[in-house]
Amino acid sequence: MPSVFLQGRPVDSYPSLAPEARRGSVRRITEVGEEVLHKPCRDVTEFGPDLAALIDDMFLTMYIADGCGLAANQVGVDLRLFVYDCPDDDGARHIGHIVNPVLEQLDAPHRRLLDESEGCLSVPGALMDVPRPDRAVVRGLDKDGGTLVIEGAGYFARCLAHETDHCNGQVYLDRLSKRDRKDALRHVADRRDEVFARRVANTEALKG
Known about the structure:
By secondary structure, the protein is of the alpha+beta class. The chain has helices at residues 19-23, 49-64, 154-167, 178-207, and strands at residues 4-6, 9-11, 69-71, 81-87, 93-103, 113-118, 128-133, 135-141, 147-153.
């Protein structure tokens, strides 16, 4: 079985950074508490070079921040869109983007909940256990308006659900108890500087 899936389709090989990142510019990542992260995003209705350029920027920004997924509102853009470069539990790598994503509600026989560690580039430095289904199916469009269906299992399913939540105006903290949310925000306060220093170092390394 191929170990790389591009836009849900198997490919023989793929570079360590998606080619989009080579064309992109780094954008500032929004942080929890900023309004754009806490309201549902608008549907993408215009497809063309501006959307493609946004996707390029999102890929590069995701890599700089050591992420496996990034939604448009995490770079301050109020649109339903995310990019990803994420492994599943079998080690297969999944790369792509999806516009106007909708997460299917799967029946219980087709999924089980896993309570595993989850982080977020907009909640820098915090990792918390979040219950998510072990399988996800997301339907949407590609940057040219073509139909897409992306399926994921394990960690990749978690990524798909997490990023679709962003498009709906939710961060993973919204799925935690008040106590766990407080713990997460305390971790952010303790580790934020370290996380940002690493992002700066990654930017410099990429320039080199």
